[in-house]
Specification:
Helices cover about 25% and strands about 25% of the residues. The relative contact order is 0.10. The protein is built from nine helices and 20 strands. The chain is an alpha+beta fold and about 425 residues long. It is elongated. It binds oxidized coenzyme A. Oxidized coenzyme A binds next to helix 7, strand 14, helix 8 and strand 17.
Length: about 425
């Protein structure tokens, strides 16, 4: 006789209290191994919980909108067959995921972080482009239509509903996909990118290898970066600023506050200077809305800072930088980067940024091309400052020059304004840096 089993929320990483956004099964439904059961969504990622068993759904124990964490009861199932993890196909990407699968009987979660379909699902013949989770979530459609749209990789946010009060119907999703297929995928939102699949290569044919699974952060960040790389038309403006006086002032400050254990790095000055520049160029403190036809102008000044941690890159956000002193920003930056490295950041800590800074100045390099942290429209890359001969008043003088690399979304920012922004920022940093205090 078939066993009735409790199906629990599996290991979903560091997320707690994650919202149930879709329930894909109902009592009486027959499910196969790997069929999706529910979708969960936090600020940062959406994930489907696939079934580890085949059988029949008995009872659903959660409702849409519930907040769940690892170990919570989702549903009960009359199980006829269970798949041991080792039975999964030995395909490279699955192997990587398998290594991360917890040893418990809980099924592995399938992160489908905002940008795209899971890599291990067959892609449609013409990919409609990455799903934009924010607009997908806001779209007016029933769970079954949502499920259907997800299966096809159709972005509900781009579909106009013909149902009552604009509700999106299954037929609307079909029409959308048909339109993409007939147009060859071109010109439909962010979609239509057709590329050859990467060939599967057995690298061991060429020499000794070792397979290391990506961390959860690597996988999530990778998906966001990939989405931003292919959907945002990037331009990077390079510039440099003379921080000789700033550095002298910073040293004085650090000396003054030494006994209190306070240390301010160049980054704190950059954050304060960025606020001044955002006020001067409000278009840099904006996001495109989901229609792509309006700019959402922000009146607050929250700055994301890329932090390199052993588990991967994270971008916590320092809020209201405009109303905090330079010293407070510096202190918060240090506390936040420790929190990031201790893996204590919550999704809220990483949301709401207006613009980001990626500083590689402590490491090295002369310039780089950072990827815009969409829906933000610009990111400031900072490389290592060095002393250079600068021609001033008829002679070369040694000055400490800081390289800046500003990447921006060319849909929102024109090249001229990109150059104006870095020139302005450069001036704010080089002239009277004590004003930033
Ligand atoms: N030029 C020269 N020296 C610099 C510098 C610059 N632009 N920026 C920092 N430094 C110096 C600091 O003054 C400090 O020197 P001292 O110890 O002698 O005072 C040293 O480099 C180390 O600084 P830091 O990196 O610890 O501190 P920070 O405030 O500059 O940066 C943080 C903090 C969290 C942003 C940084 O540690 C970090 O993680 N950077 C990596 C970000 C990243 O990975 N970006 C890539 C994203 S895209 O993949």
């Amino acid at each position: 006789m078939a066993d009735v089993k409790d199906i629990l929320v599996p290991d979903i990483g560091d997320f707690e209290g994650v919202e149930v956004i879709e329930i894909m099964v109902a009592p009486g439904d027959a499910v196969s191994i790997e069929d999706p059961l529910v979708s969960l969504e936090s600020d940062k990622a959406a994930m489907e919980i696939p079934s580890e068993h085949a059988g029949t759904i008995k009872e659903i124990k959660i409702s849409l909108g519930d907040k769940v964490s690892q170990g919570d009861l989702l549903l009960t199932m009359e199980v006829t067959e269970s798949a041991p993890v080792k039975d999964k196909k030995p395909e490279t990407k699955k192997e990587a995921a398998k290594t991360e699968t917890p040893k418990s009987s809980a099924p592995a979660n399938k992160p489908v972080a905002a940008p795209s379909q899971p890599a291990y699902r067959p892609a449609p013949a013409v990919a409609p482009g990455p799903i934009d989770e924010a607009s997908f979530r806001k779209a007016y459609a029933s769970p079954s239509v949502r499920k259907f749209a997800r299966e096809l990789g159709a972005n509900l946010g781009q579909i106009s509903g013909t149902g009552n009060k604009g509700r999106i119907l299954k037929d609307d999703v079909k029409a959308f996909i048909k339109q993409i297929l007939t147009s060859g995928g071109a010109g439909v939102g962010a979609g239509g990118i057709q590329v050859e699949p990467m060939p599967e290569i057995d690298f061991s044919k060429f020499g000794e290898i070792e397979t290391q699974p990506l961390t959860k952060i690597n996988k999530l960040t990778g998906k966001f970066l990939h989405r931003n790389w292919v959907t945002v038309p990037h331009v990077t403006q390079f510039d440099e600023t003379d921080i000789t006086d700033l550095e002298a002032f910073r040293k004085q400050l650090n000396e003054k506050y030494k006994d209190e254990g306070i240390k301010v790095t160049v980054l704190a000055f950059l954050m304060k200077a960025l606020v001044t520049a955002l006020k001067e160029f409000p278009r840099f403190n904006a996001s495109l809305d989901n229609t792509g036809e309006n700019l959402v102008m922000k009146k607050y000044f929250h700055i994301g800072v890329a932090v390199d941690t052993p588990a991967g890159l994270v971008v916590p956000v320092i809020r209201d930088v405009d109303s905090k002193s330079l010293i407070d920003v510096g202190q918060e930056l240090i506390a936040t980067s420790h929190k990031a490295r201790d893996k204590k950041l919550t999704p809220t800590d990483m949301s709401g940024g207006c613009i980001s800074i990626s500083s590689l100045g402590g490491i090295g390099g002369t310039a780089f091309t950072p990827i815009v942290n969409a829906p933000e429209v610009a990111i400031l890359g900072v490389s290592r400052a060095s002393i250079k001969p600068v021609y001033k008043d008829g002679e070369f003088v040694p000055r400490l020059m800081l390289p800046l690399s500003l990447s921006y979304d060319h849909r929102v920012i024109d090249g001229a304004n990109g150059a104006r922004f870095t020139s302005f920022l450069s001036k704010v940093l080089s002239d009277n840096p004590e004003n930033l205090l």
